[in-house]
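Input chain follows. Return structure tokens only.
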Amino acid sequence: MRFLACTLGRAGFAYPLVGIARELSARGHDVVFVSEARFAETLTRHGVRCSADAGSTESLFVASALAQPRPILKDYEYLKRAVELLRPDAILTHALCHAPLLLRDVVSIPLGIVGMACYLWPGPGEDAGDARAPEYEYRSRLVRDEAALLNLLRQKLDLPVVDIVDRVARGDDGDSDEQTTLAERAGLLGDAFFLRSVASLQAAQPRPGGVHLVGDCLWEPAMDDDEAWRAAAVHARASENPVVHVQLPGKGKGVPFLSPLLEAAADVPVSLVVTGYGSEQVGPPPPHVDVYAGEAQLFAFRRAHAAITLGQSTSLLGGLSNGLPTVVVPGGGETIVNAAVVEDARCGLRIPPAAVGPGAFRAALSRVLDDAVLVDRARMLRGEFAAFGGPAAAADLCEALGTPAGCGLTHHERKESCLTR
């Protein structure tokens, strides 16, 4: 089979798709990526085949252009040409990448969408009375915004639009003729939606039938010799004090909790391992802190005893899939929902931004290292994630999606193709 993978030019979006693509390639399938030109160079260095046949990729699929109509329409035209040339059996993309959603309206090629660590849309039968207000309000607003953006783009392409009705966005199917959530009707789930999670983390939230749990799907480039040395250093430090891994976001993104965390850690018998391109914010590290700039982080998760994160999917899944009780300091967006998921599953704690301070971190560090319930629940999750075999479950779904009956993964009717297959 041939798969076309479409990703915005950012590691957090692309790397889960790379892991799935490598698994598919090992099974003998052909996978071609479409991404931003500069990021395509990064992917090529890691053995990923990128399309260079459909025209210049300059300024296409740029993460900073997320939700901007003009760049999305440009992405759509490029992706359409790529499909005409490559003739894939299925397309694979991730949540919040809009061009493939538009293309699905006009071609009969099945679309698989890789989600995040939480289900971002309101589920069937869910309303504000069933959910905590901040998490529900974010998800409800996001699904309406996404549906409205796609409608705007469809109008510009002379494609049919979908109705945006509040009761459907809430999943309230009061009318028997309305049996789908707004996320489904707007096409946000594609033909199969791969939720990067496990059952115990998603037990509190209803999901449509086309949403499949696939484990963490984590992937990052292999470490070089210097990074391997860093891993060895962390392993040695782990024999002294419990290691807490702190993953910071990219360059230029401030982390307001960093200063109070460093102050708190000086009073608790722990060692902090700080990774990520944002780790330069630490400055000269204190004796109890190791700082490793760069994108590698899985080595630290594997040797840590607990984790602290802003709540982005990659860092959250890195901790939980390795059995680490996790402290989440949500900063907005998906992190609000991910923090609620961690609390509901009793595998970690949430520190609201307004409560951030040395005292809050001292208490949180003590709990995630010593609370038997949190530790045992996190270890149980490690087993659940391991059962998925990395990206294997997602690759299985991709193979099913690429077969003639693949679109039977969901109840969506297929559109007549505008291409000659």
